[in-house]
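User: Structure please.
Assistant: Input sequence and predicted structure:
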Amino acid sequence: MSGEFDHDVIVIGGGPAGSTVARYAALGGAKVLVVDGRDPIGTPLQCGELVPTNDEMRRLCPDVPDMDDLFRTPKSAISRRSTKMHLVPPSGKPLKFDFDGYVLNRVVHDEFLVDLAKESGAEFLVGTRVSKVEGNSVILRDGKIISAKIIVDAGGHNGPIRRDYWTEKSTKIPVKFALMDGDFGDAVELHFGSMAPGGYAWMFPKSSGANIGLGIQRSFSKGRTLNQYTDDFISKYDGDITFNGAGSLPMSGTIKKFVKGNYVLVGDSAGMVLPSNGAGITIAMIGGRIAGQVIAEHFKSGIPLEEYEKRWKKQMGKVMRNSKRSFKIGSMLFRLPDWILNLMFNRLTKGIIWRAVTCRRMFWVI
């Protein structure tokens, strides 16, 4: 099928988005190569590691079909299952909700997704970084050039295609976190207020220890650094730190177009993170499946790659719109003093706050 090219599809980045594109494109008969600078993929850890269960995802994203086919999280990748989420204002008095989620061993999880893609027929080239993309050519750091009819950027919001061929900007929130030993209970926690201005802090308990960190909007930070905010928050917990990590998230929602010619964006490079709660792993996989399926159909029947954008809007458009709206409102509210936020977190507002975090309309009448 690839003809004059080395491959039908080259996917830059083998994280959840890239591996899922590769899995479904290969299942559809495409010759797929994934290129990733990491070895093994999934390291170093760059996130909080929380995902909803499949049943929870069905509630959060009701227009996404076949959840059980897409999300096959193995037991080996689940560090802890949590059934409670606490939303915590500066006062420390949480609003408590039922929430069915997994705190992952993210490295094991990503390795499993790679294995699924390989079983479907995709090939992987790891420990190799991409310098740039020109036309149908992917130019590697070592000078080697490989080619494909379609090139997918799943390399994050600084991926080579997003960086060089898209001008639309995303709001990026820097995050920093630590893995800490200890017993932190069963409930996952999201903390709001001046400890994480414009963003939130988290504590996600694992089978042994917890993933603890935060993200901020720098424009809200009043001259303090991310390191200072992180150190202050993590110091509230007792335990030995076993790992420190950092990254950033695009938090302004999806960009307007995912396709330009033979270039396709997926995952963080397309802004596939829910702004109101920072969820990116499962959202990237939803986008990855759609992209992979459309790419395979493109080779078989000639449907335009833009069909990917249409299917994304059908499955995730409402959820993303609600999440972006909640993020904008939240960004305004989180400029308020902590004492006002404490007053706002109460039994009367509990339902509204939960609807915002779970990407539903905050108010039933708007």
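The mean pLDDT is 92.
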